[in-house]
Write a structure and sequence with these properties.
single chain; alpha+beta; 2 domains; three-stranded antiparallel sheet; 43% helix; flat
Length: 142
């Protein structure tokens, strides 16, 4: 899918280039409709980042309760860079949550047997085979 015109036609390969920051070779593609080119990193969280190496450390520090200012000191960047990463992580998480919810709704529409007991799902009291036997009437629609 083209990120510019959102065309679903097949994309053509358009060579590759070496990323200067880490020497990684990336493929480029060209849209057959709008003729614009883009790389394979266009859809990743690392798109247009110069210091991709700090993402994992920043995420771990922030997840463990370290402040943004302290995280910037530990990683060796300016505090504003950490604030931009937090914003980027939040946008990426919101997008992923929307995709998850849409896929979940689509899965429920495609499999109506799961929707039969949506209002009153049975409470499994025992684990093992008894759980399966408690769920069978719900799945079978009885």
């Amino acid at each position: 899918m083209c990120p510019f015109c959102h065309s679903v036609r097949e994309l053509s390969k358009n060579g590759s280039y070496v990323r200067p920051s880490d020497g990684y070779r990336l493929r480029r593609f060209r849209c057959r409709d709008c003729r614009k080119t883009f790389s394979e990193t266009h859809f990743s969280i690392h798109y247009r980042l110069r210091k991709r190496r700090i993402n994992q450390a920043v995420f771990r520090f922030l997840s463990s309760g370290v402040s943004q200012r302290r995280c910037a000191f530990l990683v060796g960047v300016m505090p504003r860079a950490i604030a931009r990463r937090v914003d980027r992580f939040g946008r990426c998480s919101a997008h992923n949550l929307d995709v998850y919810r849409k896929n979940r709704e689509l899965g429920q529409l495609m499999n109506p047997a799961r929707n039969l007991c949506k209002e009153n799902p049975p409470e499994p009291k025992l684990w093992g085979r008894s759980v399966l036997f408690q769920l069978l009437p719900c799945i079978a629609g009885k």
